[in-house]
Amino acid sequence: MPIILAGKAEPVAEKAISDMKPELDVVHFTFINDARREIPMLTRGEIPSPRNPHGSDDWSTRPKAIVYAAVYRDRDIDMYRKLTTEAAGTDANNLIPWLRVDTSIPAPPVGPELVKALTLRAKNMLKKLDEEGKLVLGGAVDYYY
After folding, report:
1. Is the domain 2-144 a CATH 2.60.40 member?
2. Out of the domains of life, which is the source (predicted)?
3. Strand, helix or coil at 42?
């Protein structure tokens, strides 16, 4: 299943992308410094330019969701949602779903174990949403993992 992953650091990108396989194909990893520019276009199905070397870069199938790492706070994601909705205009129903970290669920401290735990939670949630037919285009939809 193709997805987009949003995170902060290169080592995290590599670990998370590796841990997502084989069930998930991280097509693109967007870094927090690029998110404000990239998230609105990625959500609409546009391909970023310039491309970074993280992810498969296989855009033959549109990604099913954007998965946010723990570094993204609600205020950041809410701002990206506003920018995305404004940029989408009349195409707002063509947006892919977003997955946010559920901070009410206990997790390990920052480090490799956190990446591993959140990757597993994201994979399980994406599988569940896919089985329920919820990973479809449909406007501003957020799920928590």
Report:
1. no
2. Eukaryota
3. helix
